[in-house]
């Protein structure tokens, strides 16, 4: 029975030649992109642009034969697969030794063409071309090492907000120009772009941040203390005081519906409304490393050191589903654009693609079918 379930749940496992944990996964899979792909980055800062093939419409259709289509949605980056172009995929610039490489150290632009990386000893974060692996921009602005990065959803044309958080306890809000592929609006002054806003109020190193352009909000967490809600113009709106024992925020996910899920150290979760009201909380027995919300904000997906993907109802943390366990810890996750495939980055250096269908857990759907 379990095996049968496994076949329905797991689409594929892709094992990279390097055993370095996959610490960031970005699934920018929209068909109109030049390269729809799942971009992965490992702990050793080796990235891969793994081409995405749209198979969902065909999978399970009557008369569907495997020869007609790519039966697997993700194809390994050929430069990584045959070890031929690793120099185009390895970021060699030195990261500050005290930085723990995790999913927050990286941002991939919506067109898969650039990776932003932080943690460098010179207090910068940097932009690299995914095509060549070359450094295209160095951005300064913080007084100490940059510890985390996040990007908002993209506007038409690829413009978006980038937020950098630092050991200097501040965050800077930047503008990514989709036209010029740089931070800042002006290609002539790309050496010294100015941040759009400075976000202050934390007492400690910033460790996690989420930015939502639709709501115009940035939500950030420091090593300890409450999470803060700022507007994208830099005004501090409020502090999200967690319940007792929720002192050390580590992961933040915010939906455009105005729900903010925060994961704190030692398995504790809180759900806040954007107005600062605590709506729900729970505690689980896993050291969670990755969380994400479905695009409608209704469902929360979590994964961590236990290697188990779990799906929850976001509003009240009711558990909806547990996937079959993987043989390694989960370090990163992302969803394909159609919300039908979940891709996890594993501590063993592989990625796993799962079938996911949020509708099947929706109460109306359950009552109807």
TrEMBL record:
Classification via Gene3D superfamilies: YVTN repeat-like/Quinoprotein amine dehydrogenase
A Gene Ontology biological process term: intracellular protein localization
UniProt key word DNA repair: no
Keyword entries, A-Z: WD repeat
Listed InterPro entries: BEACH_Domain, NBCH_WD40, WD40/YVTN_repeat-like_dom_sf, WD40_repeat_dom_sf, WD40_rpt
Lineage top rank: taxon: Eukaryota
GO CC terms: cytosol; membrane
Keyword Transmembrane: no
Pfam families in alphabetical order: NBCH_WD40
Domain Neurobeachin beta-propeller: 86-359
GO MF annotations, alphabetized: protein kinase binding
Protein name per Swiss-Prot or TrEMBL: Neurobeachin beta-propeller domain-containing protein
